[in-house]
Sequence to fold (473 residues):
Amino acid sequence: MTPTRRAYLALIALLIFASLYLVFYQRVQLDQPQDKPADVKIEETFNWFADNAIRANRPPSPSVTTVEERLRVAEEIIRSILSDSQDFITRDCTDNVSDEYKQSVALRYANLSYAPFPTKKPRRYFFALNLYDNEAVLPDLALQLVRLIAHLGPSNVFVSVFENGSTDRTPQLLQTTFARALKHLGADHSIKTSTAPKPSKVHRIEYLAHARNRALEPLHILAAPPYDLRYDHVLFINDIFVCHNDLLELLYQQRLQRSHITCGLDYDLQWGDVPIFYDTWVARDVKGLPFFKDPGRPLHSAPSMARYQSNLPFQAYCCWNGVAVLDPTPLYDEDVRFRAATPHPHKPPEELSNTDATGGECGASECSLLCKDYWASGHGRVLVVSRVKVAYEAHVYKALHERPGKFGLPADGQFWPRDRKFEEEEGRMIEWDKGPDAQFCIGYHEKTVLAPWEQVMWEDVPVSLEDPLRPAD
Fold:
């Protein structure tokens, strides 16, 4: 290239830069008061340029500092529920844990954290909760949820709560304290409360299915025009004591294993302080058999037991166990809903007829039927994460997490300190089994309802036209 040509190109580049500078400078002159010093205006010009150049490629989200500040305020709002003599039951989630554990948690869940400058579309999370007379658990549950939301990014989360018929302060705490904390954090939410009593002639499962579907209503509203917004994960949470890191582990394992339903384990106590598995009505192992109460040997499947005893995630046919992360694809594309064993699953309770024949379907839990419908739609990868242990009452939670390894039982190896290190095997893919041909069902019976609910039977697992073990999209 000749010197004359180089000089010509340099002159053109200089003119272009000068033109851009004048455009940006004039914009600042129009947007800002005219009494600012020149150096301030120049600094704001380049701040404006950097901001707008990046904003086109990222969703609007607060900076890390802003999220941390908002979280601190949200936590103080929730703390106002407690009296001066009270403290959070789940304080051990972050207190008295080792620095090594904190570092490993930060590294393990880094990919679940929102980024100020994401390189790809952020994942979206829909939280669904049904609450009833939960004043005792609500402070801890709200605290852990706002911490989880802050980690995932408030702009990436929608929280939907449906409360029905509480006799304590649950509705007031939801509508004031929790809603205020979510608003301050910057998370979109819908909190609905209902004072309508349960209809006397409606079956319990029909009523619970209706309540759960009410919590999912915003999911479907937001998926339709004009919003056209679909979420990547649905986190359905019962009234449990749980740590936000445990919820992160469920999300982490669902993404790693490409599972369609992902749960932890829930517990009750017997003989004072000995943990026993709780949700044996819904939980089924990969053979289709109910879990045992015994935490030392809760499973029939030998391969699943080996993984359980090694504190590793294992495959199941169905689970709920207090909290479940759902792949929402069947909810969006297959019209899967919570339902009872009835030909009319989508009617509100007051319109349901209790004399309708069930067609021979076992009258299982609405959560069991959700698993059945997931399998039928080709979404049969169900995962139980044994690291995640939750409870419905404070004294059970304390027994699980404050006295690890002190029960004098073969199952002691299942109960460990909160900051137990992550094993390498916990980050590896499992080998999926095709699942059972049938599952053992225990139907629910109410004497006041004229329907064939009292059943104990083997029920065929529905066969999907699609392979449930097909590669994930």
